[in-house]
Amino acid sequence: MTEIKLIRIDFRLMHGQVVTNWIKQVSADSILIVDDKLAADKFLAQVFLMAAPPGVKVAIRPIEKAVAAFKKDVFKDKKLLILFKSVENAKKAFDLGFPMKALQVGGLGNGTNKVMISNELSLSEQEAEMLEAMQNEGVAVTLQVTPKDPAFTLHDALKEVRGK
């Protein structure tokens, strides 16, 4: 049976913090990157596969194929760290039946329509609404950049985004 150790949204996907901190923090032995664009870009996908740390398997799947793989228990006996590039991608996977009890938001990038939640985390109203909808359906949503940083609840982040 697949053991999901962490589901994380990070616009950079697999980068130094993920490779060096989060894999160790959650004791994952495999990374699943769920992203339609990356799965379609064979060259860039190969770069991500080669960047895996020793002993850690990396798989890259488009959203619909990742959901289907979980329904078929393709990742059985794996301890997975699952990465999404955006809130939109995580929400789409969840709506298609991806098993998600908890979701960590790490980095979403900056933008003119985003509110800073902390020094390194920003969130738009649209992202907040999607995360809130997922939380209302039973997903525990937290926001945290690194294991050393404090975790924010979605409730606290929503207060910042909505100015309440």
From TrEMBL:
Pfam families, alphabetized: PTSIIB_sorb (PF03830)
Main subcellular localisation: cytoplasm
Family annotation (PROSITE patterns): PTS_EIIB_TYPE_4 (PS51101)
Subcellular location: Cytoplasm
Transmembrane segments: none
One annotated Gene Ontology cellular component of this protein: cytoplasm
Domain of life according to the entry: Bacteria
Keyword Kinase: yes
The keyword Amino-acid biosynthesis appears for this protein: no
GO terms of molecular function: kinase activity; protein-N(PI)-phosphohistidine-sugar phosphotransferase activity
Gene Ontology BP term (one): phosphoenolpyruvate-dependent sugar phosphotransferase system
Residue ranges of every copy of the PTS EIIB type-4 domain listed in the record: 1-164
Keywords carried by this UniProt record: Cytoplasm, Kinase, Phosphotransferase system, Sugar transport, Transferase, Transport
Protein name: PTS EIIB type-4 domain-containing protein
